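Structure request: Carboxypeptidase D, Paramuricea clavata.
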Amino acid sequence: MSSCMDKENKRVSDMTVAELKEYLKMRGVTASGYLKPALLQIAQAVEKMMLSIDPNHEYGNSDLKNARETFIIHDMVIRQPLSYPVVNDFIDSPPFGLYDIFNYLIYSSAEYDKQGLAAYKSFEDYRLFDEGYVESLRTATLKEEGMYLFIGKVRPAMKDTTDDGKKLYDVWFMLEGKGNNRGSVLMARCTCKGGQDGGCKHIAACLYSLEDVLHNRESVTSGPCQWVKRATSETKPCEIKNLQIRRSDKRPSPSEVKRKYEHFYADNIDVDVRHENDRSPPSKKALITFTNALSSVSSKPCVFPLLEKNYQSESSQETTQEFKPTQLIKDG
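Returned structure:
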């Protein structure tokens, strides 16, 4: 396997028959019984498809790690992208916009299609960008390879740390630096579970972040074009029992808001369609009774810790033996 790793640094066109077969085998492609011209065509097609190494998990973890340290793009070997020195100056970046993002996401992500593009701001990946989950974005120009490298760090949305115990996901993607396709996404990867195919939401969030930098950058004479982190609210995951629910003081209640028009039609009349027993909020005593009754149930709902924190009362536990949690809560 180590000798095969050394052969990864060769151009596909310079490989021997044995090296071509090993190159295809590592990517799960069976190519027995072919002569060198046919093997070369298959290897070049596999290279354009950017198939992942060892899809069937036939090699050891150490060998697989070494195999993934390098990537072949445009018949050139690119070392581990996260090892390149990067800067916060995007003045030399190629033209890049929503068209390039959509063109890449439609190819690599199953969530995007022609109809979904009209509402792309409602997707989870755009929300990560808009709410400031992208913590960092840097760039490097690979002049000899004719590419642009971008490295970002994205904060997990639903938990405190990543699966590896880190605080941020590492994201990188390459843009074409020459030709008619200058600015197109060539390859992208993320350290999350879904980032090996290049179509996860963290990669998309970094793409939107780059588009925002290049679209909103100022004139060249004003200085370097730098990435600035978007403002984000102070939110983080917590247990249900620590959740605080309260009404905003700035927003008036619906009963205080008066309509600006008269009741000419029946659909403009304010009607409370709830049952009479449900129109008035339950009293605190009723909530305490309900919470104490839930404590005796074997299978408790996920919201029970929050109810227990706010309404648990030892003095009322004796009065809840005959209370059924399914009955309607009425004011005591």
